[in-house]
Automatic annotation (TrEMBL):
GO terms for cellular component: cytoplasm. InterPro entries: NFkB/Dor, p53-like_TF_DNA-bd_sf, RHD_DNA_bind_dom, RHD_DNA_bind_dom_sf. GO terms for molecular function: DNA-binding transcription factor activity, RNA polymerase II-specific; RNA polymerase II cis-regulatory region sequence-specific DNA binding. The lineage of its organism: Eukaryota, Metazoa, Ecdysozoa, Arthropoda, Chelicerata. Residues 28-47 are annotated as: Disordered. This is RHD domain-containing protein. It comes from Oppiella nova. PROSITE patterns: REL_2 (PS50254). Residues 8-94 form the RHD domain.
């Protein structure tokens, strides 16, 4: 098996839709929900959301995918803003 076939046979996460780059982050003091993180193809008439697909996973076991925010740089760093929500911890991991 060559390196390309080995890579293709391992489980991998494929990004189907990136998050939008037009979002106003809220301060923790701004109580309440201000809507979810929308996808880059979202419009006023049709909301889309960041979407991923787990490929080459052949098990019936349930999978949890943890999301975090990182900068879009050559050497990504944890983003200064944190994700918030019911399923997120204090570090912003959801």
């Amino acid at each position: 098996m060559n390196a390309e076939n080995a890579r293709q046979s391992r489980p991998q996460l494929k990004i189907l839709e990136q998050p939008t780059n037009r979002i106003r982050y809220r301060y923790r003091s701004e109580k309440g929900s201000h809507g979810g993180l929308t996808g880059e193809n979202s419009s006023q008439n049709k909301k889309t959301y960041p979407t991923v697909k787990l490929e080459n996973y052949h098990s019936t076991a349930q999978v949890y995918i943890r999301a975090s925010l990182y900068t879009n740089e050559e050497r990504p760093k944890s983003h200064v803003h944190k994700l918030m929500g019911r399923h997120c911890n204090e570090e912003g991991h959801c």
